Amino acid sequence: MKTIPIVAASIGDPVATGVVTSLAKPGGNITGVATFSTELAVKRLEILTQALPHVRRIAILLNPENSLNAAILQAVEVAATSLALEVQQVSVRAPNEVENVFSSSVAGNT
Question: Which domains, and CATH codes, for the chain?
Answer without folding.
Answer: 1-35 (no CATH), 37-110 (3.40.50.2300)
